[in-house]
Design a protein that fits this description.
8 strands, 457 residues, 19 helices, disordered N terminus, single chain, 10% strand, disordered C terminus, alpha/beta
């Protein structure tokens, strides 16, 4: 983790003059110990090696057989786990968060669990109820973080809905939602009323078993959203699931994003690498405005590019993704401009997380925040992964912006498979971390050469 350094606070705060572009030159790496820098460089280089990411789970199992669980676990803790995970115990997580807060960064806790669409179906409702219990423990931990030193702004938490509702159900709902003439009974208002009342919801397109699972899933989502003072950022997933996920988010928003609740408490995630994202985002923002609901958005580039293209090829359907990386950048920029304009018009009822490791996107956001007069510590925040993009995160945090680091936590057995899945989904991010690797190498060379010069005197 990062060491504290009080001198950095003399650089904090916005410029008194016009907008000044932030410098992402790795200057903040002087806050890290040499061992931390070395580990970060090694881990980022390993994660950029495709065979390691592709065969990560098999390699983990092989190392356990060859080295034994204890030695294999020690190596993981000293490398990948130590780089990307806050820890296993409550005290370890709080220690990590306190160090981040001292540097002007905030926690975005992530429970490492969800159902993968192509995996074997988990064992009934008990599996989802166990996930809910883990999330409610995370809520309690998130609330406890408010008592730690440092900035005490809104605490955020991530959620994959497929941890509480099966992918089979979400695929069935998506199929039905794509036939508007048949989907009127699946309105957000009807689902929200069922959440509130607890009365059974009968949807004609679902079997009796699926209706029972839908009702149980709505109850779990309602219990999770009811834990206020922890804002819920719902992750987007595959296009075969996203319409159903957005329906469930909309139902939660009807209940929890009204102005009287002080929301938005429930945010949806929009993936700029999909061709229809800008139009969906525009429509959803306008609909929330018309309904008088607060609106929360986490804007990402997207993590399922290869899988989406492969599915489209196999099914003979149109590729839903942007044709290339530049088109995705343009989509992200348009969505960012749209949301910043909405924030400037709607004020505290419209919130945005700029979830990006891309320096140009961050520069665009900071410039427009200044031009539109949006408070630096207001309804716009930034998000990056723990253990990555620290040269951007620290520059933002010390300039006075709200910056969150996505923090998974838990045991090796829980977190390593989760990290490997995230690495497989975020190959482009990991392979694109070359600049961060270069900055880490420069800082290590500077230290080694500096020590050599001191030793020669």
């Amino acid at each position: 983790m990062l060491r504290t350094c009080h001198v950095l606070y003399s650089q904090a705060g916005p410029s008194a003059g016009g907008w000044q572009p932030l410098s992402f030159d790795g200057g903040a790496f002087h806050l890290k110990g040499t061992g931390e820098l070395t580990r970060a460089l090694l881990v980022l280089r390993l994660c950029a090696w495709p065979p390691l990411v592709t065969h990560g789970l098999a390699l983990q199992a092989w190392s356990q057989r060859l080295l034994g669980s204890r030695l294999s676990g020690a190596l993981l803790r000293a490398s990948i786990y130590g780089q990307f995970v806050a820890g296993e115990t409550t005290e370890e997580v709080k220690g990590c968060v306190q160090q981040l807060q001292t540097l002007g960064l905030r926690p975005l806790l992530a429970v490492p669990t969800e159902e993968e669409p192509d995996s074997a179906v988990k064992t009934g409702e008990a599996w989802y109820e166990g996930n809910l219990s883990a999330m409610l423990r995370c809520v309690d931990l998130s609330r406890g973080l408010l008592e730690t030193p440092g900035p005490t702004g809104n605490v955020l938490m991530q959620l994959k809905i497929t941890a509480l509702a099966s992918t089979r159900l979400c695929k069935e709902l998506t199929s039905w939602l794509r036939r508007p003439w048949d989907s009127l009974e699946l309105s957000p208002e009807r689902l929200a009323e069922s959440m509130d009342s607890g009365r059974d919801l009968q949807v004609s397109c679902l079997s009796a078993e699926q209706n029972r699972h839908l009702q149980a899933s709505l109850s779990r989502l309602h219990q999770r959203a009811r834990a206020q003072h922890v804002r819920l950022l719902v992750d987007a997933e595959y296009t075969s699931l996203n319409p159903a996920l957005s329906l469930l988010v909309a139902a939660l928003a009807v209940r929890w994003n009204s102005p009287r609740e002080g929301g938005p408490w429930v945010w949806n995630t929009y993936q700029a690498y999909l061709k229809d994202t800008y139009e969906r985002l525009r429509q959803d923002a306008e609909a929330a405005d018309r309904a008088g609901l607060a609106f929360g958005v986490k804007l990402v580039r997207g993590a399922y590019l290869d899988k989406e293209r492969e599915v489209a090829r196999l099914q003979g359907t149109e590729d839903p993704t942007q044709p290339d990386y530049e088109a995705t950048n343009q989509s992200y920029s348009r969505c960012l401009e749209l949301m910043l304009t909405h924030v400037s018009h709607r004020g505290p009822t419209c919130h945005l997380m700029v979830a990006s490791h891309n320096e140009e996107s961050v520069r665009q956001a900071t410039k427009r925040i200044w031009e539109l007069g949006i408070p630096l510590d207001g309804p716009v925040c930034f998000g990056q992964l723990l253990g990555m993009c620290d040269h951007v995160s620290l520059a933002l945090g010390q300039a006075g912006y709200a910056v969150y680091k996505s923090i998974p936590y838990g045991s090796l057995e829980e977190v390593i498979p989760y990290l490997i899945r995230r690495a497989q989904e975020n190959r482009s991010v990991l392979q694109g971390a070359r600049r961060e690797q270069e900055l880490l190498s420069q800082e290590l060379r500077r230290r080694l050469l500096g020590r050599g010069l001191r030793a020669s005197h």
